[in-house]
Amino acid sequence: MIFEHKPVLLEESVDALNVQPNGIYVDCTVGGGGHSSKILEKLSDGLLVAIDKDGDALEACSKRLCGNVKLIHSDFKQLGEILDGLGIDKVDGILADLGVSSYQIDNPERGFSYMTSNAPLDMRMDTTQQLTAAQVVNAYSEGELCRLIRDYGEEKFAKSIAHNIIVERQKQPIETCGQLVEVIEKSVPHCSRKKGSHPAKRTFQALRIEVNNELDGIDEFLNEAVERLNHNGRLAVITFHSLEDRIVKQSFADFATDCVCPPYFPKCVCNHRSKGATLCKKPIEPSASEQQDNPRSKSAKLRVFVRK
């Protein structure tokens, strides 16, 4: 299967970086290379560092990206180590698209989609790691499953789904997406299913987050990213669900605040100083035409922070 991915908020995110021809930029999640290609078009003597933990993505980008680019097989949360290894102290812009690529979703072998019934329950963005969705479903306790489906999937029927998973796996291991979907459909009352929203969507999201450890370390990454920006450098982050967006929104607010002491303190003792400001008060969202052209973009939100 060819690695293809339609970049979300392409023009908006690259414009937000305010790319300078001789600047240094980082695409933390290169994926199919859509954002990176656009950045490279604007560079002359500059450098692009393109990171992804999916080896398939990097292999595809090695053939597609032309220009002064360094491809790095790693997790973007290791940004500091990556830049240090390249001898780079500061950069002019950082882009992080936290979504799953279309290739990963559409490739049945990767097991991300609830629409591919015979696909193995995998969901690993980095296929070299050990933990898979099948292992989570078949090994976690009922309480652990309920917690992650409730917290990561924001699923109100998490208790019922977790219980039925335990019941089903006692009969036979749950190894395919289709098997899990059947369990979920039995657990969610028909009258509660939202029109246009698959009943398995939230549970699959929760499993993907757990398998790939998606939420852990985002705040540390954002802190590192801001510290690595030059004066007027920009950090642009695209999120696809409320859990990620909440972390980014709060982190950006903290970065823009001069004092984080409790309001009842008579004077500031935290020595916290503003590192810059958000580019827009509200997140940038896909246009109506983009949402129509690419339905997967509907939940995307772009937030941008400018370093002072």
Written description of the protein model:
With 308 residues, the protein is α/β, with parallel strands linked by helices. It has 2 domains: 10-98 and 215-307, Rossmann fold (3-Layer(aba) Sandwich); 114-212, DNA polymerase, domain 1. Helix content is 41%, strand content 14%. It has 13 helices and 7 strands. The chain has helices spanning 10-17, 34-42, 55-64, 79-85, 102-106, 133-139, 142-153, 158-171, 177-187, 201-212, 218-227, 242-255, 288-293; strands at 24-27, 47-52, 69-73, 91-97, 229-239, 276-278, 301-307. The protein has a 7-stranded mixed beta sheet with strand order 3-2-1-4-5-7-6, with helices on both faces. Helix 11 (218-227) runs parallel beside helix 12 (242-255). It is globular. The N and C termini lie far apart (44 Å). The model has no long low-confidence stretch (mean pLDDT 93).
> What share of residues are in beta strands?
5-15%
Structural class: alpha/beta
List low-pLDDT spans.
Answer: none
State the share of residues found in helices, binned by percent.
Answer: 40-55%
Largest beta sheet: what is the strand line-up? 3-2-1-4-5-7-6
Average pLDDT reading: 93
Question: Number of helix segments?
Answer: 13
Radius of gyration: 21 Å
- The name CATH uses for the topology of the largest domain is Rossmann fold
User: Which sheet architecture does the biggest sheet show?
Assistant: 7 strands, mixed
Provide the domain count.
Answer: 2
CATH architectural group of the largest domain:
3-Layer(aba) Sandwich
Q: What is the total tally of β strands?
A: 7
Distance between the termini: 44 Å
For this structure, what is the CATH homologous superfamily of the largest domain? Vaccinia Virus protein VP39
Tertiary shape:
globular
CATH class of the largest domain: Alpha Beta
